[in-house]
Amino acid sequence: xxxxxxxxxxxxxxxxxxxxxxxxxxxxxxxxxxxxxxxxxxxxxxxxxxxxxxxxxxxxxxxxxxxxxxxxxxxxxxxxxxxxxxxxxxxxxxxxxxxxxxxxxxxxxxxxx
Length: 113
Description:
113 residues, alpha+beta, 4-stranded antiparallel β-sheet, 3 helices, 4 strands
């Protein structure tokens, strides 16, 4: 019984360390959504945007661990296609995936958690 318990604890600790290492390798990037000039299809709700982002990330072969929508109303200036909506998309992914996102207009940043 003690041997089984020790093996379980060992496997649990190794798994925990691997997960912690994966989180340390993750970075954040953000994107200021535009009225209609984004590389994914336009969305009017958060659910539609999440679906559009999912398809876009799949197309460019990017896996994310977190997607967060925030608002920055100081960005909203006009209704032209290239103007910002005020919605900011924040994405957490591995460093290599963040590099792929940068090629599509995302900007890396450090997020305090």
